[in-house]
């Protein structure tokens, strides 16, 4: 059994490398139910969801996690009531003006992944501002998936590869990966979904091929450091074989 107590408290120097995910991807679900339990409108839950996100960015950063990708608005979320959609768009503007300086000071680099063609000019400008302000940072790489869908991502990658003149014989998994929206990041090691649903919901379909999946009933605004530690401990206990087999102790001794 790996002793995780030190690095879970933030003692990154002592962490066993394979026990800490390099890239964590999160579906932040349950904001609406969290608000409903408090007899408040759904956007109230999203506002507290934003606070939870800022806390989790800090927690990941302190643990030495290098990449964090969060699903903030899916290509399907346009089907929500107009009031909720405009509330979420407004939350981008509020979030960037309230938290960007703090995140930038910590060295966080922000990327936004998704189809910007349907997103308003004001929201695009806010994301562009967040990306350019943090472009030189070398700390945690935060990707906000916004108007993002996994199928959209695969199609846009194919389109860009074709437009680049990539010949069919040059097309490979590695080549296409570079055209995916997260072409700059390794695939997620750990996928977390809060809110009790057990599905991927068109998030990072290509990139999650070998991620360890962790589902929790915790509603996103309640997600805290203890929940993150639980997810990391579950990850550390998994036996990742990537389709291979675990070498038996005698094989390991012989090759040592
Ligand atoms: C899903 O919960 C959550 C979303 C669609 C939005 C997630 C947004 C945030 C956490 C705030 C941060 C936002 C930005 C723009 C960076 P749900 O509403 O489906 O919850 P429910 O299943 O309880 O209804």
Automatic annotation (TrEMBL):
This one is known as Isoprenyl transferase
Pfam families linked to this entry: Prenyltransf
EC id: 2.5.1.-
> Does the keyword field hold Transferase?
yes
Q: Where is the signal peptide?
A: none
Transmembrane segments annotated in the record for this chain: none
Q: Supply the CDD domains for this chain.
A: Cis_IPPS (cd00475)
Q: Which major enzyme category is it?
A: transferase
Instruction: Tell me the superkingdom of the source.
Output: Bacteria
Q: What does this protein do?
A: Catalyzes the condensation of isopentenyl diphosphate (IPP) with allylic pyrophosphates generating different type of terpenoids.
**Organism field:** Ideonella azotifigens
- Active-site positions, per UniProt? 29, 77 (proton acceptor)
Q: How does it assemble?
A: Homodimer.
């Amino acid at each position: 059994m790996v002793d995780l107590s030190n690095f879970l408290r933030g003692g990154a120097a002592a962490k066993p490398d394979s026990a800490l995910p390099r890239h964590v991807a999160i579906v932040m679900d349950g904001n609406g139910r969290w608000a409903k339990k408090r007899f408040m409108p759904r956007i109230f839950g999203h506002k507290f969801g934003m606070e939870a996100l800022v806390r989790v960015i800090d927690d990941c950063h302190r643990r030495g996690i290098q990449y964090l990708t969060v699903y903030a608005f899916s290509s399907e979320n346009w089907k929500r009531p107009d009031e909720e959609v405009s509330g979420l768009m407004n939350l981008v503007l509020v979030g960037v003006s309230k938290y960007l300086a703090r995140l930038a000071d910590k060295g966080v680099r922000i990327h936004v992944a998704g189809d910007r063609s349907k997103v308003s000019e004001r929201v695009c400008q806010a994301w562009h501002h967040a990306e350019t302000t943090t472009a030189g940072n070398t700390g945690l790489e935060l990707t906000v998936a916004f108007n993002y869908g996994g199928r959209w991502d695969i199609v846009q990658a194919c389109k860009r590869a074709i437009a680049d003149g990539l010949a069919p014989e040059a097309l490979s998994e590695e080549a296409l990966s570079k055209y995916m929206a997260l072409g700059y990041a390794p695939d997620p090691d750990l996928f977390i979904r809060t809110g009790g649903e057990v599905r991927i919901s068109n998030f990072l379909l290509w990139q999650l091929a070998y991620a360890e999946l962790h589902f929790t009933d915790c509603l996103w605004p309640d997600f805290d450091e203890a929940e993150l530690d639980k997810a990391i401990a579950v990850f550390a206990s998994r036996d990742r074989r990537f389709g291979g087999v675990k070498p038996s102790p005698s094989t390991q001794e012989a090759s040592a």
